[in-house]
C-alpha cells in the first residue's frame, strides 16, 4: 500500500513544491522514528520470553522496580517521542501560512469554492472575476495564495504534490499558500467526506509559466466571439441550461458550474469522465447514473438531437 503512494498525480511522496517537500520530509522522518519505536517494542516483547533466574525482592523493592518502568516507559518515552514530533512538525506548516512580510510582494490570490460536488475557481480582477470550474490554472515558480470556502457542506482542498490540505467551511474563508516549482499538471481531490459523490470531486490543477498564465487569464476576460455556426445550440442552451449555468456573454446562471471555457477542460463531472468527442452529449443523457445524486436535473426529456447539438457546441467552447 505504501509503495502505491510513491508516484502518480496525487502522491505526497513525489513533491513538486516547497510546502509538499516539507510534508514529504516529515513523513519520512516519522516513518523512520516510528520504525525505530516498533523495533524497540518487538525486542522488549521478545526479551520478556527469555528464561530468567528468580530474583527475591522485598515489597518495597518491587514497588520501586515497577515505578521505574511506569515512569520510564509510560511517561518519559512517550514524552520524548511527542516532543520530537512537535519539533519536526511545527515548522512544516509554516511555508503554507499566508504571511506577507513587510517589503514582500503579496502573492497572486485564487479563490476556490467547494460545492456538492464540484469546484468553483475565481480569479479576482479589477474588471470582475474570471470564473472557471473543476480546472484550476496557476502560475508556476511563485507562491499562490488560495482563499478557500464552501457553498454548502464542509469540503477540503488538497493538492498532494504541492502541499496542504485545508478545510473549506461554509461561512468562513481559510487561506493557504502553495507553490509549484515547475509548470505541470497536478491532481487534487476533495479530502473531506461531503456526501455520496465525495469521491467524484476531483480537481485538475495546471501550473503555467507566468506569461502563459497571463495569456490564459486575458483570454477569459475577453467576450466570447459571435458563433453563427452554433446559433441553434446557443438557443437550446438559453432555453434549457441558462437558468443554472453561466456562459460569458450569453447567460448568467449561478447555480451550476460556469461553462464559458468548458471546451478546455480535461474531464467532465469533476473527474467522472474524460472530455472527448461526444462526451458532453453522453454526460447530459446519463449523468444521473454516472454521478447519482448530483444537483443537475436529469435531461432525459430532451431529444437526442438537441443533446448532441448542445454537446458539439460546448465541447469546443473555449475562449
Ligand atoms: Cu467535497 Cu468531499
Give a written overview of the molecule.
The protein has 319 residues and is of the alpha+beta class. It folds into 2 domains: 1-47 and 59-98 and 109-209, Immunoglobulin-like (Sandwich); 228-314, Cupredoxins -  blue copper proteins (Immunoglobulin-like), CATH 2.60.40.420. It is built from 6 helices and 14 strands. The protein has helices spanning 18-47, 59-92, 210-221, 231-240, 279-290, 304-314; strands at residues 108-115, 118-123, 130-133, 135-139, 144-150, 155-159, 163-168, 174-178, 184-189, 202-208, 246-247, 251-252, 267-268, 273-274. Strand 6 and strand 7 (163-168) form a beta hairpin. The mean pLDDT is 88. The chain binds dinuclear copper ion. One of its GO terms (cellular component) is membrane.
Strand percentage lies at: 15-25%
Summed up, the domain count is 2
Largest sheet: 5 strands, mixed
Q: What is the terminal separation in angstroms? A: 42 Å
Fourth-level CATH superfamily of the largest domain? Cupredoxins -  blue copper proteins
Order of the strands making up the biggest sheet: 3-2-1-5-8
CATH class of the largest domain: Mainly Beta
What is the secondary structure topology, with strand pairs?
Blueprint: H1 18-47, H2 59-92, E1 108-115, E2 118-123, E3 130-133, E4 135-139, E5 144-150, E6 155-159, E7 163-168, E8 174-178, E9 184-189, E10 202-208, H3 210-221, H4 231-240, E11 246-247, E12 251-252, E13 267-268, E14 273-274, H5 279-290, H6 304-314
Parallel strand pairs: 1-5, 4-10
Antiparallel strand pairs: 1-2, 2-3, 5-8, 6-7, 9-10, 11-12, 13-14
Bound molecules: dinuclear copper ion (CUA).
Dinuclear copper ion binds at residues 114, 117, 155, 190, 192-194, 198, 201.
Domain Cytochrome oxidase subunit II copper A binding: 105-219
Protein name: Cytochrome aa3 subunit 2
Family: Belongs to the cytochrome c oxidase subunit 2 family.
Amino acid at each position: 500500500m505504501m509503495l502505491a503512494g510513491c508516484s502518480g498525480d496525487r502522491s505526497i511522496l513525489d513533491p513538486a513544491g516547497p510546502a509538499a517537500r516539507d510534508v514529504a520530509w516529515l513523513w519520512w522522518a516519522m516513518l523512520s522514528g516510528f520504525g525505530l519505536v516498533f523495533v524497540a517494542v518487538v525486542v522488549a516483547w521478545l526479551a520478556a520470553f527469555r528464561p530468567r533466574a528468580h530474583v527475591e525482592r522485598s515489597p518495597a523493592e518491587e514497588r520501586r522496580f515497577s515505578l521505574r518502568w511506569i515512569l520510564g516507559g509510560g511517561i518519559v518515552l512517550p514524552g520524548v517521542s511527542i516532543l520530537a514530533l512537535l519539533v519536526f512538525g511545527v515548522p512544516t506548516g509554516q511555508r503554507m501560512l499566508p504571511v506577507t512580510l513587510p517589503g514582500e510582494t503579496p502573492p497572486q490570490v485564487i479563490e476556490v469554492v467547494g460545492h456538492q460536488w464540484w469546484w468553483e475557481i475565481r480569479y479576482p480582477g479589477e474588471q470582475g472575476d474570471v470564473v472557471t470550474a473543476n480546472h484550476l490554472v496557476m502560475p508556476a515558480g511563485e507562491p499562490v495564495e488560495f482563499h478557500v470556502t464552501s457553498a454548502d457542506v464542509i469540503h477540503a482542498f488538497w493538492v498532494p504534490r504541492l502541499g496542504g490540505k485545508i478545510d473549506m467551511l461554509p461561512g468562513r474563508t481559510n487561506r493557504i499558500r502553495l507553490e509549484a516549482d515547475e509548470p505541470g499538471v497536478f491532481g487534487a481531490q476533495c479530502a473531506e467526506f461531503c456526501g455520496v459523490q465525495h469521491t467524484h470531486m476531483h480537481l485538475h490543477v495546471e501550473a503555467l509559466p507566468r506569461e502563459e498564465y497571463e495569456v490564459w487569464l486575458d483570454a477569459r476576460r475577453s467576450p466570447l466571439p459571435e458563433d453563427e455556426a452554433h446559433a441553434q445550440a446557443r438557443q437550446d442552451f438559453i432555453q434549457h441550461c441558462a437558468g443554472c449555468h453561466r456562459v460569458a456573454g450569453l447567460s448568467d446562471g449561478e447555480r451550476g458550474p460556469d461553462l464559458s471555457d468548458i471546451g478546455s477542460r480535461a474531464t467532465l463531472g469533476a473527474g467522472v469522465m474524460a472530455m472527448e468527442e461526444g462526451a458532453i452529449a453522453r454526460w447530459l443523457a446519463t449523468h444521473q447514473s454516472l454521478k447519482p445524486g448530483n444537483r443537475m436535473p436529469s435531461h432525459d426529456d430532451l431529444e437526442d438531437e438537441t443533446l448532441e447539438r448542445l454537446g458539439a457546441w460546448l465541447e469546443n467552447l473555449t475562449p
